[in-house]
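agent> Task received from the user: take the single chain below, predict its 3D structure, and emit structure tokens. No templates, no multimer pairing.
agent> Plan: (1) validate residues, (2) run structure prediction, (3) serialize to tokens, (4) report one or two observations.
agent> Step 1 OK, no nonstandard residues flagged.
tool_call: predict_structure(input=
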Amino acid sequence: MTRDVQITFDCADPAALSAFWAEALGYELQKPPGDFTSWDEALEAFGVPPENRNDASGVVDPAGSGPRLFFQRVPEGKQAKNRVHLDLRAAPGLEGEDRMQALEAEAERLVSHGATRVQRFEPAPPMQFGHIVMTDPEGNEFCLD
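)
tool_result: status=success, residues=145
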């Protein structure tokens, strides 16, 4: 039996981090439930106080095939390197300099949205095709692969 997967991020600012990952992945913010036209309207109706309205956020694949990402506010900051990270497949099917140019272009785009470039790894045939390590606006590592 297969299961749906949701990837959860502990973070300080769920709204900002979900907006970053929506941009990075081509996802969209999850729509509010029922007939509500906005999350503020829904949260107001549910009696959620204004200071708790950024406690969580979710983004979804508009095509419905990728996993949902869920962002939850936690009091502590990031403590250490991630043991699990996302690889954004930004250059599928490309090799050599074409691949690295595509990864560089995506790195520049994501930096303009708050990511930080950490390190570039050059291609080392036959097994490594090169990648770029990045962090999101809250320091979570991910790779452009």
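agent> Step 4: summary for the user.
The first strand starts at residue 6 and ends at 11.
agent> Done.
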